[in-house]
Amino acid sequence: MIGGIGMPELLVILLIVLIIFGAGKLPEIGAGLGKGIRNFKKATQEEPELAEKKTEKIEASASGTEKPAS
User: Where is the composition biased (Basic and acidic residues) (predicted)?
Assistant: First the structure.
């Protein structure tokens, strides 16, 4: 069960999508959805790393000893 949606509801949604887009478009839709999820995960992982690098840079400049750029 995903967020209150059970198996019968998912099957109805899949059937509606199949009727609207047809069987030929489903692989394209799935690929696009997969790319979107992958990009979202990548962005959420990069954000904390970027914030940590900025924090280190600010701390280094505050103490007067900057690290060499890598």
Answer: 50-59
Beta-carbon neighbour count of residue 20 at 10 Å? 8
Please give the model's pTM, rounded to 2 decimal places: 0.48
Burial of 5 (0-12, 13-18, 19+ CB in 10 A): exposed
- Span 15-33, pLDDT tens digits: 998 898 888 888 898 899 8
Tokens coding 31: 């690929």
How far is 9 from 44, CA to CA, in rounded Å?
30
Alpha-carbon Rg for the chain in angstroms = 22
> Are 23 and 15 in contact, with CB atoms under 8 Å apart?
no
